[in-house]
Amino acid sequence: MGPYAIATYRSLIGAVAVVVFLVVMRRGLPRGSATWKTGLVQGITNLAVPYILLNIALQHASAGFVGLLVALVPMLTAVLAHFMLPAERLGVVKVLGLAVAAGGVGVLLLAGDSGLVDGGRPDLALLLGFLGAASIAFGGTYAKIHAGAYTPLQVTGIHFVSGAAVIAVVALSVEGPSAPQNMETWALMTYLGLFGQFMPFVLFYRLLQRVSATYASMVGYVVPLIAVTAGVILLDERLQAGIVLGGLLILVGVLITDRSERIAVIAAEGAPEELIASAE
Questions:
Q1: Would the pLDDT of 280 be above 50?
Q2: Is 178 helix (H, G, I), strand (E, B) or coil?
Q3: 260 to each of 96, 143, 157, 214, how far by Cα in Å?
């Protein structure tokens, strides 16, 4: 199946899962302009745009390579949050983390390693992955702004339905009608829709109601570790020097930002200076 069709079916299955869950739990249909507006914005920025871009990027580079770019989401979220959320300002440590991660992206670009056994276009994959990560970062920051005005599950439903609709239109215009041809493909699409989309987003929106946008996005640094490992084991992808060095720099940059965010949270909660000093 083509990249657009994959994104369409996993999004549709995720949307069906949300609707069924709402009906079973008797939560009712989404109401309120804030819920609908947030869900529609998320459908575009946190589903349609990144899923299309990242699925295309996977045609030109390895899963590990693209997974490393997803790790940029916390960095880009920190930058956007600085301008969009008064309580989440960039400090010296966050800027340092951003610089280190940017160096990792530079290494990926200069090394020219795609991680694929045959060919690949790492430059194109890098551009698509960066744009996808930036779109996710904007969506997460926007959702944080309105975090107290919506129910996570209802926003997830609008998010999936609207995003799936956009992706479906693009898929039909670019690839034409397409459907899984066997039970194995349907099983994979179902897995992606439920465990790669439905569950993570519901948990993410719940998390946004409790912590900062930057801190919530930190789960992104788990993605490259899994993607690189699974790519090598399951897909015979290459663990090339440029990907290793660039990936390490990106992860170090994320961890630096993570440490800065933890210290900020502790300080905001009025912790004793001794505890803040130990965190540093």
A1: no
A2: coil
A3: 10, 22, 33, 10
